[in-house]
């Protein structure tokens, strides 16, 4: 029996004839139905489009023309460099340019502003003056970042005081390279904020807790190379996604404890350059986990991740049945570690593995065939495996892949990201080498492609885009660009 197509075209139902509609004519094909929409809806459409596409809307309907200036404005000043090398004259000119842009907008609302400015103290009054402008009242999205202006760079400036007044209306906020005192963090209240990013921010754990306490409906949080605290206990009734990136330096995050997160669905680690101890105490809806590097000493999600996983010291403490998607970044492919992980996460449906070495000293053979029937994951749930780093066809890698080919009973797709330089004869050799004809799942497809990739969420877009069921997308490079 063939599976149903991913998309099918359903013909329209024929309209029943009615006596009281016989004299009515169908509307003409060129009827401008867009013009029937309210101004507020049209203005919102324009504000959500890129600038070039927003301008083109005037060709679709005459109604868009007067709305162009009154639609919510997106003002991106990133790279203008308020307070850059141009000195006082350059700072004043940049401020004047942004002020004129707001004035030319005809007093319409401003939806989003992106700013970058120097850490130099001389630049701060210009930023404060702009943030205090009544023209940006009601702002919904704010992103600002202080960049280095000299070596060594000046200290990170405090959170700009005029930005506090914008807190009641903000829905998306990204604050970069500034510092938060406990007094400032405690004074901020974000009743509508859903997405928050702190990038290279200096903040204590107490201040971070106070800041998050003022985010009453927060859904996504990204901590990117923040410092000033070594331990963070997360308790949030609304948070659905969190991304944590840890760099190097003093007072960096060493332990993350998810204490109480009843709505948390994603726990993402875009970049971990230092060891991080992660504990999940209560996250009953956690479905997505990754990227997990193999050299982190401890991940307490009901499991202990060893410092040297090839020694098979991974031990199961409890199973997390809620996790469906797992992404691993590993130096080598270790079947023992993967089998233990599948026991920890028995309901996995998608597995992403990025490997950089051809293998280890083990042969990745699994002699315990009598245990295969008790492996719930490969017998009932695992449908997709995407592997990056399979290029050498070494014995260890081949045995690793063959285990899933021969035992994953419901597998639908096993994808291999390979370099473009791989010869066609190498690909032609794989079906026999990997015993694809003996696959356990008759529905399984095997894709060797150099035109695809799976990506790692690296910014607020990936962490906050909850419309994607799987953030570790595997798509063509052309589409991704």
From TrEMBL:
Membrane-crossing residue ranges in chain numbering: none
Pfam families attached to this UniProt entry: FBD, LRR_At5g56370
Region (Disordered): 1-33
Domain FBD: 376-412
Signal peptide: none
Domain of life: Eukaryota
Xref: InterPro entries: F-box-like_dom_sf (IPR036047), F-box_dom-containing (IPR055302), FBD (IPR006566), LRR_dom_sf (IPR032675), LRR_FXL15/At3g58940/PEG3-like (IPR055411)
Domain annotation F-box/LRR-repeat protein 15/At3g58940/PEG3-like LRR: ranges: 127-353
PANTHER family tied to this protein: F-BOX DOMAIN-CONTAINING PROTEIN (PTHR32141:SF160), PTHR32141
Name of the protein in question: FBD domain-containing protein
Organism in which the protein naturally occurs: Urochloa decumbens
């Amino acid at each position: 029996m063939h599976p149903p197509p991913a998309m099918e075209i359903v013909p329209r139902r024929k309209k029943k004839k009615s006596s009281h509609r016989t004299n009515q004519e169908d509307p003409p094909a060129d009827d401008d139905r867009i013009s029937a929409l309210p101004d507020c809806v049209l203005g919102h459409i324009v504000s959500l489009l890129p600038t070039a596409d927003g301008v083109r809307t005037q060709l679709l309907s005459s109604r868009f023309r007067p709305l162009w200036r009154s639609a919510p404005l997106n003002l991106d000043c990133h790279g203008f460099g308020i307070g850059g090398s141009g000195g006082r004259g350059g700072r004043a000119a940049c401020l004047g340019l942004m002020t004129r842009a707001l004035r030319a907008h005809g007093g319409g609302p401003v939806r989003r502003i992106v700013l970058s400015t120097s850490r130099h103290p001389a630049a701060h009054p210009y930023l404060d003056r702009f943030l205090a402008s009544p023209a940006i009242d009601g702002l919904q999205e704010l992103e600002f970042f202080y960049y280095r202006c000299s070596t060594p760079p000046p200290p990170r400036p405090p959170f700009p005081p005029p930005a506090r007044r914008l807190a009641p209306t903000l829905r998306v906020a990204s604050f970069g390279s500034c510092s938060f005192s406990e007094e400032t963090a405690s004074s901020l209240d974000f009743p509508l904020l859903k997405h928050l990013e702190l990038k290279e921010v200096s903040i204590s754990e107490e201040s971070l807790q106070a800041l998050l306490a003022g985010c009453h409906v927060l859904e996504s949080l990204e901590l990117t190379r923040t410092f000033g605290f070594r331990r963070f206990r997360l308790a949030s009734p609304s948070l659905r996604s969190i991304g944590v990136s840890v760099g190097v330096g003093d007072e960096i995050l060493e332990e993350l404890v998810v204490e109480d997160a009843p709505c948390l669905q994603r726990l993402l680690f875009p970049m971990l350059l230092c060891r991080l101890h992660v504990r999940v105490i209560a996250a009953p809806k956690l479905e997505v986990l990754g990227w997990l590097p193999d050299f982190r000493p401890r991940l307490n999600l009901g499991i202990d991740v060893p410092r040297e996983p090839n020694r098979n010291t991974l031990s199961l403490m409890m199973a997390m049945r809620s996790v469906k998607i797992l992404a691993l970044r590993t130096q080598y492919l270790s079947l023992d570690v993967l089998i233990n992980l599948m026991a920890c996460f028995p309901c996995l449906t998608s597995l992403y593995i990025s490997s950089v070495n051809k293998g280890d000293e083990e042969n990745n053979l699994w002699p315990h065939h009598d245990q295969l029937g008790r492996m719930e994951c490969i017998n009932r749930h695992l449908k997709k495996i995407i592997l990056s780093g399979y290029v050498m066809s070494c014995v260890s890698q081949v045995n690793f892949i063959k285990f899933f080919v021969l035992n994953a009973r419901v597998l639908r797709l096993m994808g291999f990201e390979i370099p473009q330089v791989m010869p066609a004869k190498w690909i032609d050799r794989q079906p026999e080498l990997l015993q694809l004809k003996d696959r356990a799942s008759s529905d399984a497809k095997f894709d060797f492609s150099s035109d695809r990739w799976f990506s790692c969420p690296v910014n607020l877009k990936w962490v906050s885009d909850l419309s994607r069921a799987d953030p570790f997308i595997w798509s063509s490079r052309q589409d991704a660009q």
